[in-house]
Design goal:
One of its GO terms (molecular function) is metal ion binding. By secondary structure, the chain is an alpha+beta fold. It has helices at about 5-20, 40-50, 75-80, 95-100, 100-105, 120-125, 135-150, 245-255, 280; strands at about 30-35, 55-60, 85-90, 110-115, 150-155, 160-165, 180, 190, 195-200, 210-215, 225-230, 235-240, 260-265, 290-295, 305-310, 315-320, 320-325, 330. Bound molecules: fe (ii) ion.
């Protein structure tokens, strides 16, 4: 590893701890990493926590593949009961973000959390990381309000997606539509870094239509487009000749629960790069992601060992009759 990267990691960590999480003196911050995490990241975070007069605990959990990808270790679950802030920096899995106990503690507003999972240091320093997060939060709140007032969301893309879902009206972590715009300063707030999206779990059994996945997918290698047909909230058909279809067929065989449509999310970050990385691209202004698998984080009851985001490029999005995006271009006044 290039040791000089610690310089950039320190500046980033200070920004995260002071600005994005507003960590206060005396608070307890749990940082969860795995063997694939770049060490500079969690060392810099720990140092920054200490520098503001708070206490860090760093927990190293096993590398998780497809199996139990949303499970923390039992001792880490116990530790969560004692902390004010959780920062997940695991590289191999999203366990600190998608673990059921984390969702419960957020819903009870006992912790706040920042998800930096499944990323490299570059993701934290370039592209979406450089956005104005105060402006992003304001846009996120505005879009979330419009979405939560609608009955149905409809998504189309030039690649052929034509998908719709009913709007869930029950709040999760106090929000009908979850705003994740990089800031988590109050108990119950959850954000990622880098960030910039609003999302929710579709109303049970209502998502339907055709998804033409032309962007990256968490957990799948390659970029060949494929088609998913969705009926009553679950994938009923999979089509396309490429490598990703074969990978996904295998996943559906071993984990049938992965057919469940868990989440619809809308990217809002104007600085996100188009670099093939699903975490970066799903946050890009005008991209949409639809996730397969577990919806526990989104207030649902569907348990599954995975939660995989699938990115759709440059979407047109309607909230009932309101055209929010046209081919990826925001159609409402950002500053209104
Ligand atoms: Fe999302």
């Amino acid at each position: 590893m290039n040791r000089q990267r610690i310089i950039d990691a320190i500046a980033l960590a200070q920004r995260i701890v002071r600005h994005h999480l507003a960590v206060q003196p005396g608070e307890n911050v749990l940082i969860v990493a795995d063997p694939e995490t770049e060490t500079d990241i969690y060392l810099a975070l720990a140092g920054s926590v200490q520098a503001v007069g708070a206490e860090y605990t760093v927990a190293l959990m096993p590398t998780r593949g497809q199996e139990r990808a949303t499970r923390l270790t039992r001792p880490i679950e116990r530790a969560l009961e004692e902390v004010d802030v959780l920062i997940g920096v695991t590289r191999a899995s999203g366990a600190p973000t998608y673990a059921p106990r984390v969702a419960e503690l957020l819903a009870q507003r006992r912790i706040r959390a920042l998800s930096m999972v499944m990323r490299d240091l570059d993701n934290y320093l370039k592209g979406a990381a450089t956005a104005d997060y105060e402006a992003l939060e304001a846009l996120g709140q505005r879009v979330a309000q419009l979405w939560s007032q609608a009955e149905e969301i409809r998504i189309q893309t030039r690649a052929g997606t034509d998908f719709r879902a009913g709007v869930t009206k029950e709040p999760v972590m106090g929000q009908v539509v979850i705003v994740e715009c990089g800031l988590a300063r109050e108990p119950g707030r959850e954000a990622a870094f880098s960030d910039g999206e609003v999302s929710q779990r579709p109303r049970t059994g209502t998502s339907q239509g055709v998804l033409v996945v032309d962007g990256p997918v968490a957990g799948l290698k390659g970029m060949d487009p494929f088609i998913l047909e969705v009926e009553a909230g679950r994938v009923v058909r999979l089509e396309g000749g490429g490598h990703r279809v074969r990978q996904l067929e295998a996943v559906f065989r071993s984990l049938p629960c992965a057919r469940h449509i868990a989440e619809v999310g809308i990217g809002l970050n104007p600085n996100a790069l188009r670099n093939g990385d699903f975490e970066e691209e799903k946050k890009a202004l005008g991209n949409v992601h639809v996730a397969l698998g577990s919806d526990l984080f989104y207030g649902g009851t569907h348990e599954c060992g995975l939660h995989w985001d699938m990115v759709l490029y440059d979407a047109s999005v309607w909230l009932d009759d309101l055209l929010l995006f046209k081919d990826g271009k925001l159609m409402i006044d950002e500053t209104a």
